[in-house]
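Lab notes, practical 5.
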Amino acid sequence: MKARPCLLSLLNVAVLVLLSLAGPIYSEDLHEFFYADGPLAGTLKSDRPLPLYDVDPQHLWNRMFSAFYIRPRPLPANDGQPATTRFEGGDVIEFLAWGKTEYWSGIGVFEKVNPLLDEFLQRGGETSLPDPLKRAVFQHDLWAVYDHLVDQNIKRTGDRATRARRDVLCGKLAKCMQRLALSATEVAELPDTYALAIQSGAFAAHHDFVAERNYLPPGLLTQPDSWVEVDFHQPNLHEDISDRFVTLHAQSLQGRSYYRIFYRFPQGRPQVIDYLKSLNETGIDWKQAANDGFVRLRKDAPPIPVGTEVGLLQLMMTVNAQLQPVPTKIVESFQFRVFRNIDGGSEPPTNTGVGINVLDYRLKRHLLFDRQRVGGLEREQEGLPQYRVAIDGLKETAPDWGFADKSVLFQQCVDCHMSRRNHRLGAASIPSIIHSGGFDSGAQMGVVHPLTAAESGLTGQRVAKYKSRHESFRRMLEHLCQ
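Output from the prediction step:
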């Protein structure tokens, strides 16, 4: 016997009510958007929108996000594989635009994203999802796009028509960002997502040198006697060189994120303090460094102790309603390294094979927006391609798709950390210890120093000041006046 139409309608309504009470469907269903195996494993099956900001993939914010954070990559036939297209990106923190990338400046992208920006501005798109956390993250997503396009115009890359297209998009992106901006109170109430990750109980409290264990140090932000935050900032030097104390990571992202660096030595804070003092006094030829504009450690520099742990915490900046860049406590990534040896040897075994275990966690919107589950953090898979823009990505020499030989996580890590080829072993494999990069990279040479608990918030404030004076930010304010 067939159900009556009115009964079917009631059943449909009941199902919808139950779904709404159960909460959004996120991570459990995202697997359907990705290839699970084969040569395309880990990549998206298409560029269709993902249900990230709303359970409806066709929600405007999801459509806008997919237009900017899913990018096709045509690949020619190779090694018996036919020509194909990979759809890269998705729920990622990196906007896939390197120095030589022309994709985002093309007519095809313009015709795709320009109507979406118009729809947002004409229909009050900022009101469709009032949640301050989603607004802050979405604003940050658009900010990366704006900075890339305006940077290309600052450099006068492309012909007049190309620059004009970019300028149109920049003007609309700036207005979208302004509408998404939070009040000072809303910014202050954004969650501390690292604390939420620890409180979730989803991460081990001890690593015991087991690389397969999903470990997050519970005392990273709360135990300064164990985890020592370090910085290069020298407050008594001339203000004109203050930008040299912004980390290279933050500079490479033009101040949209700020980074906090932590060391833990086996014997705690006193051992870290003594080591840095010894390194400063005996480990560096300062005369040669002044001549080179780049600090290198002496071959006989004091070694770091086996068991040294390093944590790099990336946190999100936002633009508030007063059009000021301000730091938040939303974690975008956490990179952890622990040394089992300091000579790059294969024993004891590590997940890199060169003496260090590496764990890399990234913000996932589908977790963060699902009741802020596990603080929104998920460990990156070690064997899949990782496309990173930070550090080298903005250089004019950077290829259209980054550096293919460093696409896997460990290939990227080992190149800078524990590389015999680059003479980076032990202390030299921790670039932050001497603010690696030199004057040409905008770094102030020197050895890091420990921060006190009272100084822990200064890094974010300094990056906010750096961003407020950056040319890209000045251009954004100009676009808002047009």
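Observations recorded by the TA: The first strand starts at residue 70 and ends at 75. The beta strands are 70-75, 84-89, 228-231, 257-264, 309-319, 325-339, 356-363, 377-379, 449-450.
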